[in-house]
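Hi V.,

You were right to ask for the full record rather than a summary. Here it is.
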Amino acid sequence: MSIATKTGDTGATSLLFGRRVSKSDFRIECNGAVDELSANLGMARAQMAGVQGGAFVCDAILGIQKELVNLMGEIAVAPGDRPQHAAAGFPAVTTAAVDGLTALVDDLEKNRNIHFARWATPGDTVASAALDVARTVCRRAERHVVSLREMDSTLNLEIVRYLNRLSDLCWLWARWVETTAQPLSTSTEPTNNQ
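Predicted structure:
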């Protein structure tokens, strides 16, 4: 079977359980933002391979990317299909998942000796810049999901909490990289080549 199913050629796509909606449907827009978030986290994870001691970040990101697949599945359920989603045993974003991200935040804040120098201007290292891009995409996904929840009050609030915590985590990871890695540039002073 080809990846090119051609079923979306008229601008429609399927939600979970087969309901057809326009590709401009806000539920699809939310999942597009979360998909973009996962791709950016993947880029950050690839960049972290060159950061000494960064394996703990890579491992956490990979786990989060797997959780985002379940999160997207939940978003892709129309309100009328939620009982079917639950009965089918699909995983949902839980308080425990949010607590897991909170534990990572707590560890970074308490045990990783992070400083916040130049935090308002991303780009001291490639890895920290990638994490800051992931953070901004996460915030956009969060805003979209908040808007969706305002339209659909049955949407799991833990999804909003998860994305909120994840954006905090990405910010702290970027600061950890800047604290521990050699920056691309540490000065804005011009060099003297005399």
